[in-house]
Specification:
This protein is of the alpha/beta class and about 350 residues long. Helix content is about 40%, strand content about 15%. It folds into 2 domains: about 5-160 and about 335-350, Rossmann fold, CATH 3.40.50.2000; about 175-330, Rossmann fold (3-Layer(aba) Sandwich).
């Protein structure tokens, strides 16, 4: 096998983490291997995008050990926080960055931290030969925010695995599912606020996603559920394995997201892959991920608009049926992971 089809995929921490970014990295590696690539997984220290000096030193040492000329794709969670290392290694390695969404746009950052990340990421990305973005919206943001020439950006949207069509709850009422780690950006508090004004309707919500990655948010969401008297309707299930998540989707009637910003929205495309309609906040790339025929989109951060859209879905059976038909149509058009790998492969080979 030619060294030209040899890739080092670098990422912080453990690759088996159940977040959209790590799922993308895992599936990309497997899809490239299916296309004949040799992919070495390189685990960098944890702590990014706010690494300790020790984590940065260890990351620099790991990259220094790679052979001259090696092609290295670094996950943006780490890449954007290591501008000095990127500048040094760009002269020796064939260095590429994989950006799921800009680090400085994470919800909850104090202004000084956001500004520091913006400058750090700008400097780091300038050292990459090519930047892989996971959606056209993210590519446009990278060009606008960091001044990257569009010719240096490759778009490779996530694939979606074939899955059975969700059978739904069977009623009565609407069972909603929300999939995402409980962090400020994912908007779970907004979702609880929206649902709190729907006590006259029959619905229930199941939330799948880690409650450990940002404990203050998880605790605030649990407290809000209790304070609003929604304990019997809203359940925080924590992180689920693939089989449990598939069961959750299968019994759902609607997928809902209040996320303030998404670089793509893999949980949304995963729901579409099961023919589930959506109600979602249109932050970042969501409007590109969710076709109008399959979902109702609302402005991010607007609990009133989110509540109104959810009410419409629950109260208007004709609308719900039309959106489900739209989701089933969209399901047939979702790309697979081989298409993702083909786009990344073109970037790796400089095509």
């Amino acid at each position: 096998m030619s060294d030209r089809r040899h890739l080092v995929l670098a990422f912080p921490g453990a690759l088996d983490a159940r977040t959209g970014g790590y799922v993308y990295d895992r599936r990309l590696a497997l899809a490239l291997e299916a296309r004949g690539w040799r992919v070495d997984r390189l685990s960098l220290p944890e702590g990014f995008p706010f690494p300790s000096p020790e984590a940065l030193a260890r990351s620099a040492a790991l990259l220094r050990r790679l052979a001259d000329g090696a092609t290295v794709l670094v996950d943006g969670l780490a890449f954007g926080a290591m501008p000095e290392i990127a500048a040094v290694e760009a002269g020796r390695l064939d260095l590429l960055a994989l950006v799921h969404h800009p680090l400085c746009l994470e919800t909850g950052l104090v202004p000084a931290a956001a500004a520091a990340l913006e400058e750090s990421e700008r400097r780091a990305l300038a050292a990459a030969r090519t930047v892989v973005a996971t959606s056209p919206a993210t590519a446009r943001t990278l060009a606008t925010l960091f001044g990257l020439p569009p010719a240096r950006i490759t778009v490779a949207v996530p694939g979606t695995d074939p899955a059975p069509v969700a059978r739904g709850s069977g009623g009565p009422g609407c069972r909603m599912v929300c999939v995402g780690t409980l962090t400020p950006r994912k908007g779970h508090l907004l979702l609880v606020e929206a649902l709190a004004g729907m006590g006259d309707l029959a619905w229930e919500l199941r939330c799948a996603g880690s409650t450990e990655r940002h404990r203050p948010t998880a605790e605030a969401v649990a407290a809000a559920v209790a304070a609003r008297g929604l304990d019997g309707r809203v359940r925080l299930l924590g992180e689920l394995d693939p089989d449990a998540l598939a069961t959750l989707y299968d019994a759902a009637d609607l997928c809902v997201s209040a996320s303030l910003y998404e670089g793509y929205g893999m949980a949304l495309s995963e729901a579409l892959g099961r023919g589930l309609p959506l109600v979602a906040a249109a932050g970042g790339a969501v409007a590109e991920t969710v076709p109008a025929v399959a979902g109702l989109l609302v402005p991010p951060g607007d609990a009133v608009a989110l509540r109104a859209a959810l009410r419409r879905f629950v109260e208007e059976p004709g609308l719900a049926a039309a959106l489900r038909a739209g989701a089933l149509a969209a399901r047939a058009r979702l790309p697979g992971w081989d298409a993702t790998a083909a786009q990344v492969e073109a970037a790796l080979l400089g095509r």
